[in-house]
Amino acid sequence: MERLVCLAVGYLFGIFQTGYIYGRVHGIDIRKYGSGNSGSTNALRVMGKKAGLTVFLGDFLKTVIPCMAVRFVFKDQPDYAYVYMLYIGLGVILGHNYPFYLHFKGGKGIAATAGIIFSIDWRLTVLCLAVFVLIVAVTRYVSLGSLVVSVILLAWNIYMGRCGAYSLSAISSIEYSAVTAVIAAMAFWRHRANIVRLIHGNENKIGAKKS
Fold first, then answer.
1. In whole angstroms, what is the distance from residue 179 CA to residue 59 CA?
2. What distance in Å separates the CA atoms of residue 104 and residue 106, rounded to the nearest whole number?
3. What are the residue ranges spanned by the domains of the chain?
């Protein structure tokens, strides 16, 4: 029941579509421009740096806030804290990617995933940020950086769960890794078109505006 509650609460946070709302305030439906999603990368490409940063922070914070609330409530029960953080984070991603009031057409959940990473461990945050910045700086492919970060998150959580770094029981460690795998898989699913373009060498590069 607690897991279902976390998913439901996370979904409610997730449906706050920062990109869509920001676009509407400025007179456009962001989903009708660029890549067609309401995430921060498309906001950056279509509306500029200020929009991209604003949308990223909004989507990032709507994950960090509920995750940190769960971490505080269960601070004396790490088995519950870390697992429930992932469930509520997954709920945010589901709400962000599939908002019911926008016909389930949202973003790709990377800023929300960044919020999960930040909430879990500052060391993981530094690692993922460094790798993401390096990949984007060298290739200019935000999608590639996002996918690599998702893989790092999965590998980190599997390792940390098994080595006992977060004081997880054996069963909780398995669940922790499984939920992380779902989060990573969703990132790849939402980027499936980007993956095809990356393979063919015609993926959109950061800094190149789309009409």
1. 20
2. 6
3. 2-200
Burial of 6 (0-12, 13-18, 19+ CB in 10 A): buried
Cα 47 to its chain centre, rounded Å, is: 21
Secondary structure letter of residue 74 according to DSSP: T
DSSP characters over 154-196: HHHHHHHHHHTTT---HHHHHHHHHHHHHHHHHHHHHTHHHHH
Put simply, whether the predicted model's pTM sits higher than 0.85 gets the answer yes
Whether 160 contacts 166, CB under 8 Å: yes
- The answer to whether 97 touches 146, Cβ cutoff 8 Å, is no
Interior CA angle at 153 toward 147 and 154, to 5°?
95
Residue 36 token pair: 């067609």
Contact yes or no for 111/22 (Cβ under 8 A): no
Contact 156, 181 (CB under 8 A): no
* Residue 52, both tokens: 């991209």
Residues listed for the chain: 211
Q: What is the pLDDT of residues 74-120, one digit of tens each?
A: 988 888 899 999 999 999 999 999 999 988 988 899 999 999 999 99
